[in-house]
Amino acid sequence: MQRRERSRLPAAERRRQILEMTTKLIAERGFWGLSMQDVADGCGLTVPGMLHHVGSKDSLLVAVLEYRDEQDAQSLADKLGRPVQQLWSDGRISLAEVCTAVVARNAEQPEIVRLFAVLEAESLAPGHPAHAYFRVRQSNTLSQFAGLADPAVADPRELAAQVVAMMDGLQIQWLREPETVDLVRAWESAAARLFG
């Protein structure tokens, strides 16, 4: 039996390590291909030791998604020069600006985009542990985007849905063929059509 070299980390740092390792493994294999043993091994822990920090496999998945959302919101706020709390409500930023910043951020982290693309597709099955998470996330994203739409737009929610569909579709094409698809340039072209 292989002996693990374990280092003591503060609980918050250990949890972050577990979330980062899980993120990497889900991006490679999807949730159904995720092995708790592989996560534990990657962190130098036993499975029971790891579960002490995260609960269950299902709760670990939701924790990973929430952690990534927090990281992305902070990064987006930094890119836009706004506090996180004002991203969707200060009235000084447009939908086009937010989308451009989101795409620029995503272009820097293909493994995270892959993670969300894989999990979002898997979670279409009602029994998937992230099914409710992605349903709520989609509703929130559409509401936030609609709230940033130009007041002259007849149906802001419809525009928001089209924007999300375009972003998601371009990201899939980019993930499949990163050597031929420039995500930022493809988005700029699409945004010119969507926003005039």
N-to-C order of helices and strands: HHHHHHHHH
Q: What is the mean predicted local confidence, pLDDT? A: 90
Shape label: elongated
Q: Structural class, from helix and strand content? A: mainly alpha
Question: How many helices does DSSP assign?
Answer: 9
Main beta sheet strand tally, sense and closure: none
Radius of gyration: 19 Å
Query: What name is given to the CATH topology of one domain?
Result: Tetracycline Repressor, domain 2
Low-confidence stretches: 1-5
Output the CATH class name of one domain.
Mainly Alpha
Structure, described:
The protein has 196 residues and is mainly alpha-helical. The chain has a domain at 65-195: Tetracycline Repressor, domain 2 (Orthogonal Bundle). It has nine helices and no strands. Helix 1 packs across helix 4 and helix 6 packs across helix 8. The chain is elongated, with a radius of gyration of 19 Å. Residues 1-5 have low confidence and may be disordered.
